Amino acid sequence: MKRLSELEPGQKAIIHSFENDEIFLKLMEMGCVPGEEVTVEMQAPLGDPISIKVAGYQLSLRIEEAQSILVKTPN
């Protein structure tokens, strides 16, 4: 299991769970639900924020938000 923030641009993964309950609902409303495929599209030059593709659209996340999303990567 990895954190979404650990993925490199171009990598895909499946959302497994959330570590931080405070932003759980916010992320779920944005389409970040367990079982959903997510692709890291771009990362800002200093690493924050990152742009991901999830549920058919682009979403920017702060690195602290991405750290709370646990993902499974294909082997």
UniProtKB/TrEMBL annotation:
Q: What name does the UniProt record give this protein? A: Ferrous iron transport protein A
Instruction: Output the lineage of the source organism.
Output: Bacteria, Pseudomonadati, Bacteroidota, Chitinophagia, Chitinophagales
Q: Which UniProt keywords apply?
A: Iron
Q: Gene3D superfamilies attached here?
A: 2.30.30.90
Taxonomically, the superkingdom here is Bacteria
Query: Which InterPro entries does the annotation name?
Result: Fe-transptr_FeoA-like, FeoA, FeoA_core_dom, Transcriptional_repressor_C
For this UniProt entry, the molecular function terms from Gene Ontology, in alphabetical order, are:
transition metal ion binding
Q: Which residues form the Ferrous iron transporter FeoA-like domain?
A: 2-73
Which SMART domains does UniProt cross-reference here? FeoA
